[in-house]
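[STRUCTURE TOKENS]
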Amino acid sequence: MESRVYEIQGHTVKMPVVVRDASTAAATWLVRAAAAQRLVPSAFEVAQVLPGRTPLAIAAVVYRDNDLGDYNEVSITFFVRPKGAPRGVPYLGALMDLLRGRLGTFIHALPVNQSFTCEAGRTIWGFPKTVEEIAIEGKERRASCRLTMDGQHVLSLCLPRGGTRTLPDAETTTYTLIEGVPHRTRFSQGGSGVGFSLGGARIQLGSHPLAEALRSLGLPKRSLMSMWTEHMHGRFEAPEKL
């Protein structure tokens, strides 16, 4: 793959973009697949792991050492395939792909709290980044995040912090639209200080339209699982046209 270079706000960004250290708090829910599909472009279809149900992941990330700077981020992510891609055995195939990290993702919203990473994410990969108010706090046993957009509360997320596991580097794919054309971006990540919990996450929704979109999926409700990574690292490749 040819090396690509981008000029963002007077700075040169070379591929791949490397994350050397970050902390992540993430939770997963099973939500209404039909409602989720309405939030995903028609070029992609959500993966159903149970009849009428698809996974939704919400994550809060504190980037400390990253080619795009040190910043906070919240991601609202669906698990998808390109439209018409092989599905395998109904439901079971999607579930096994999810557990093995083979399902791709589509990010519905990706708020950050700095302008440089916002412009880089939108320009390079087509990520739906916007600059918002994000407060992330890590206590000894709990991590919490509050997202505010346009002066309105969107969500507050709280989940267990801590863990002793190590996750080896694994590659996956995220999908975007760049000028209306479907693209895929390969990225890999691993980490240490990892902890998993069944359920474990609490979410509160505010009055912002993004919160209403999450309500249309069936939130707030009990999460399927939550995950904490004290030290995450990774790398993002250049986008590729599908």
The mean pLDDT is 94. The chain has one domain: 5-241. The chain is about 15% helix and 55% strand. The two ends are 15 Å apart (CA to CA).
